[in-house]
Specification:
The protein has about 400 residues and is an alpha+beta fold. About 20% of the residues lie in helices and about 25% in strands. It folds into two domains: about 280 residues, Sandwich (Jelly Rolls), CATH 2.60.120; about 100 residues, Jelly Rolls, CATH 2.60.120.10.
């Protein structure tokens, strides 16, 4: 740990409080890729691992895949000295240097996972376990939020199924889903859900325990630090997926005692049956009022929780934008080119499109300059308890 700490310290000094990161590519074997991540055609196919369908950002989370390298999903520092050091080990060895002394005292890590996911078919209907159930398998819950970029093809099925029809909960017909789990033969379970369009420039907030089948719009997601899930849809993209994915994060005792019904007991039924699900979970952009400047504009794109938050910054061509933040964060340079606190940045250039900004640097003024002919677009990702003033969705009830 002493050696790792020294590498992190030197990297932070060299970068004036900013760490450069390498892309972390993640494969999935149950869906085809959307091929919108900027890789070459050959790079998407990774054999028995499936296809590269996701890029994880400033990740300290390992992808929980049955086949793949032990460090799949973990981000690595891009340091000039050439050492191979992943961000999880860096945070463990030098947490206070990265997260700030006070934050590190109350948080064991960065506590969030940002990713881009890119599928050519809709993701199967599934849940992420709530805290009470995730703990039974030694994992975290997985609340998450989506942002759909505006300048990318949305794919063949740009609509996401959420929850169940309200009458199922009103009339307590919870077992209506059980035969689909037992028989495990088709995708007809989706008839009991409702779909909503993936509107570019907008998104959704999704708590754990809620059924969902995300559409094919390229999605930049921010979530809790976890990879737990249970798939409830047998047939997807023309093939039957392994039923083991239904029980992936169900403890052995519950599986043996309850069988397929164990999954239904993990659902947050009131939210699944909310008749105003859209109104209570839709995330339109919200202007960051205090950030108003001539050079650009910032909007909240991830909010409604203290577990994570995020903003989209747009800087005009030839202009600059200066800001401070409340704590450690990472960025993805989505489009355009320029400098971030003096560091060269360029969207879709994997050598300089991903940075982690330490707490001590984040709380001081940072200037972003756009040297390109088009808007410079940057997504900022924050972990738990940093932006306690982030907006909340005003619950709609009739």
């Amino acid at each position: 740990m002493t050696g790792i700490r020294e590498i992190v310290k030197n990297a932070l000094e060299d970068g004036s409080g900013v760490l450069k990161l390498k892309p972390a590519w993640v494969a999935r074997d149950f869906l085809p890729p959307g091929r919108r991540l900027g890789l070459t055609e050959k790079e998407y196919n990774v054999g028995d691992r499936g296809f590269i369908c996701e890029r994880w950002l400033a990740s300290v989370t390992r992808a929980d895949n049955a086949v793949g390298p032990k460090d799949e999903g973990l981000s690595y520092l891009n340091v000039t000295s050439g050492e191979e050091l992943n961000l999880r080990d860096a945070v463990a060895a030098a947490g206070e240097l990265i997260m700030g002394t006070q934050y590190a005292k109350t948080h064991s890590g960065l506590g969030r996972l940002a990713k881009i996911y890119d599928f050519g078919a809709r993701i199967p209907y599934h849940i992420h376990q709530m805290e009470k159930d995730a703990k039974l398998v030694g994992a975290n819950s997985k609340d998450e939020a989506y942002y759909f970029p505006e300048d990318v093809d949305t794919g063949p099925h740009p609509e996401t199924f959420f929850g169940v029809h309200p009458y199922i909960v009103d009339e307590k017909k919870y077992d209506i889903l059980l035969p689909y789990l037992v028989e495990w033969k088709d995708d007809m379970i989706l008839q009991h859900s409702r779909a909503y369009l993936n509107v570019p420039g907008e998104g959704f907030f999704l708590p754990s325990g809620v059924l969902h089948a995300p559409g094919t719009a390229l999605t930049i997601e921010l979530q809790e630090d976890s990879d737990v899930f249970s798939m409830l849809q047998a047939l997807n993209a023309g093939k039957i997926i392994s039923k083991e994915l239904l029980f992936k994060d169900v403890c052995k005792e519950d599986r043996e005692r309850k069988g397929e019904k164990a999954i239904l007991d993990q659902l947050d039924w009131p939210i699944n049956g909310d008749p105003y699900f859209y109104e209570n979970h839709h995330l339109p952009n919200v202007l960051v009022e205090e950030s108003r400047q001539d050079g650009g504009v910032e909007h909240w794109v991830y909010y409604n929780t203290t577990k994570f938050s995020g903003k989209r910054l747009v800087v005009k061509p030839g202009a600059s934008f200066t800001f401070t933040e409340k704590g450690v964060f990472n960025i993805l340079v989505w489009r355009g080119k320029g400098t971030f606190d003096g560091h060269k940045i360029e969207g879709q250039n994997f050598e300089c499109d991903e940075l982690l900004i330490s707490h001590d640097r984040a709380v001081k003024p940072i200037t972003v300059k756009n040297y390109g002919q088009k808007d410079l677009i940057i997504i900022k990702f924050f972990g738990p308890d940093i932006n306690l003033d982030a907006p909340k969705i005003k619950l709609y009830r009739k």
